[in-house]
Structure prediction request, 471 residues.
Amino acid sequence: MTHLTDELLDRAADGDTLAEADAEHLRACADCQANVERLRALRGRLASLPQTVPTEGDLWPKVHGAIRARRRRRLVFTSSVALALAAALLIAVVRIGNGPDAVPSGVETSAELAELKAVVPPVVVEAMAANLTIYDAALRELEAFAASERDNSDVQQRIEELRRKRAALLRLASNS
Amino acid sequence: MRRLTRSFILAFTALTAVSLAPSVGATQIRRGMAVDSNVVVKIWNPSGSLKLVAWDRDSLHVEGTGPKWAPFFFGGGRSGVKFGIEEEKTKGELPRVALVVYVPRASRVSAKTVDATIEAEGVSGYYTTVSGDIRVTGALRELQVESLRGASEVEVRAPWVRIMGGEGDATIRGSIEDLAASTVAGRLTADVTGAARARLETMTGALTSHVAVQANGSLELDSHAGTVELVLDPNARVDVDATSVAGKIDNQFDKRRPLPGRGGKGMSFAFATDPAGARVVVRTYKGTIVVKRGA
Prediction:
């Protein structure tokens, strides 16, 4: 079974009329339906981006949110609506460019560990470093595989699942 | 004069010994109070050991030993009690304290440690540690276990169990209706009956599932790179769907052959017994899947 291409998924998410064969596939394929739903949800989120924009770690809102809540540190853009919209647009462009499922770079992981270090004992940071290394290696492996098989929705789902699990582990660590 | 000097030295030595004794000696902890049968208990014992025992009394009792300088706190009322080591007063050094706690059977305990082991008998609750081992046994209402580095061993009869591990192994036995367990690199082994829903996951750790699922139930096994062993009883009623994106599948349950995956990568294997039963889904990225016949 050949799934819909990214372009067709985009059009379906926009509500465009698809060719009968493609529309029929979409009606019958749960994977493609899920991809269309994800695209719509992503666009909904982008459209409703707040005028308050974190300056870093935006790929990890839950994790950073939890840590920041403890630190009571908030950065707020207070300039004009136009500036906020421009910032939101910039973030949207960067996100689309990198893909929402980009693997955390070594620098990002180091930053996460540094933030953890501020709120949990060193022994937790040490344990987390070992676990995150495994997650990041797995994510890199899956990203490489996904790049060679762009229409493989199973791999995309695995990537999203791994990212969720990684975030859950970080939450667990920050509560230790 | 020599006798006087000797007496002085002896007296000085004795006084020194007496004055030092409290700071290096151990202290006994013994606290107790009447509580509601469903009391909520919170315990923080970073290092040493913690043993929890359920008893059929409406009271809570704590016994323990630790260094004299261990800043132990204890407070609360009938519906909630909180006790443990005051971390702020330890100045970075964690005292090794051995605690034994007796709680009403219907209580709900939340216990946290850094490297202290946790052992619970018949006590429902939430147990979390960084590197201590956790062992829980008995009949429970619910159980949640989290350990980043330690091993978890659970042998219970419970409707709801959640286990999250990192590098340590997790071993689960007993009768559990709703089970979810995961590790990162640790081996995950489940030998469970009566499951309505079970989900077991690892990243690189080996996973062995011998889970008897109810006919209308579901079992999901997932690993990135670990070997997944699905053990099915000969009389199991199942509808199996196994896929490895880049790994192999070895069917030792019967003579059916798994199929190569798309583009020759990976393998897939699906079969259903007659009549079909529980939905069993197995997924790996590159780990080998082995389907086996149980005893």
Q: What stands out?
A: The helical segments of chain B are 2-24.
